[in-house]
Amino acid sequence: MSETCQVDFYILARPTQSAGELACRLAMKAWTQGHSVIVCAESTEQAERLDELMWDCPPGRFLPHQRGEGEAPVGIVTQGEELTREGDLVINLTTEPVPEPSRFRRLLEIVPVSSGRRDASREKYRTYREQGLSPETHKMG
Hints:
Shape: globular
CATH topology: Rossmann fold
Low-confidence stretches: none
CATH class: Alpha Beta
Strand order of the largest sheet: 3-4-2-5-6-1-7
Number of strands: 7
Strand content: 15-25%
Number of domains: 1
């Protein structure tokens, strides 16, 4: 169990930027640094898209992954699935905050351009602060 979870919000600047592609790039970077990763998808459809992306994102690279939590270094779960595995890093693509974020070393929140999603992300930011965490924000080009 981690004593402090580092929370980072990655704010997409343009509608053409893909939250899924950014999630794959961040997962690839974490995996190459030896971390285990859980990616939380909003829906089954988004989880399927992530599964497809991880076969070739970035192009020419395969990111070892599986649906659900298991032995693969990257697990893809959908909103509502209980996160049973403690791990190094969670990438959250859902509108809900990750329950008990202190179980993880890092939590990455990806914030799309749409105003509804931004409002949900602001609420998540407040929730994490109320839990004693200190989220940081990063604007993505």
